[in-house]
Amino acid sequence: MRRRLIIMLLTTLIVFQSGCYDRMDLEDATLTLMLGLDVDDKDNLIVYASSPVFSKEAKEKSERFSVKTSTIRQSRNRLDAMETGLTVAGKVQIIILSKRLLQHPDWFSFLDVMFRDAKFTVNARVVALDGDVSEVFSYYPKDKPRLSLHLMGLIDTANQRNITVKTSVQELHRQMYEKGMTPSLTLMKKEKEMAIKGTALLDEKGKYATMVRLKENVLLELVQRGVRGEMSLTIPIHEKEKKKGLVKPRLSFFVKKASTKIKPTYDGNRFHFDVKMKINVGISERLFSFDVKKEHKQLEKIIGDEMKKEIEGLLKKCQKHKVDPVGFGIYARAYQYEAYKQVENEWTNAFSQADIKVSVETIIKGNGIVK
What we know:
Layout: H1 2-16, E1 29-31, E2 34-39, E3 45-52, E4 62-69, H2 72-80, E5 86-88, E6 94-98, H3 99-102, H4 112-116, E7 125-129, H5 133-137, H6 147-160, H7 169-177, E8 184-190, E9 194-202, E10 208-212, H8 214-224, E11 232-236, E12 250-266, E13 271-286, H9 296-320, H10 328-335, H11 337-342, H12 347-352, E14 355-366
Helix pairs in contact: 8-9
């Protein structure tokens, strides 16, 4: 009886044990690490894929293919016809979208498979490329790690310095369907090397609108999130007497602490946003003569005025191109709900006509280790 019970118990465990009917050995799979989307002159979708090669005989450690197709899912079959294993998209780390693709307002529909298929990763970083995607996938840096890892490192490092955003597939989906803000992506360009150029700003339909450069993105992050990671800024100092020479009067500082309060109001015609910022800074570089100890209040005012001027210029640029990467619409919805609901479906138009006032209070908390 004991032996029978053991056999019945083992049989029950085997029958009801969960398993994978679609199990695949690593040797039979092609792990796509980098995916690229572009369009040709006739607006045909071109899908690029880069995968590692696990073979001692192979001279190149990655294989890269491109196919002309109608959808991303359709491209899988065509890629399988050329690659050594079955294409697997669950390990994609970078998705590169060409600027030419982003200039079409309906491009986001191509990504439907990424949200519908549970096997597709939604943690991959999404990047906008100023140029042809083919240039990136034909780039073989000899002094860099595998290209997908190299690009991930570039994005993560730049994001830690706050000179660009880091947008995943899931975050892009949230931004596309959030009516109170517009999407933003890391912007890269292939020159001699791959380089971060700033942040691409998309309009409410996802169409490429404009870009913000590295310094502008620091200001954007400061208004939107406050201090996150390391924030370093360099501003010009305007002197009464211009001195000739190699060294220009510049001041660099770290943002140690910052708080931003955005108060929206509505007067019946348009929205008004009062942006109040309080920033603690530590001076890291000073290329002009100044007695900070005695005249720190004057220097604080100089920093505050210059910061105010640059932030206002950045926000006016966003209004001009009808983009809201900060999310002023979210504040309007939270505090002026009835007025916001009237313009909810045309928020970027309402934002472009809004009155934004910026005030910056700066406090110097450190002058470095030299007098």
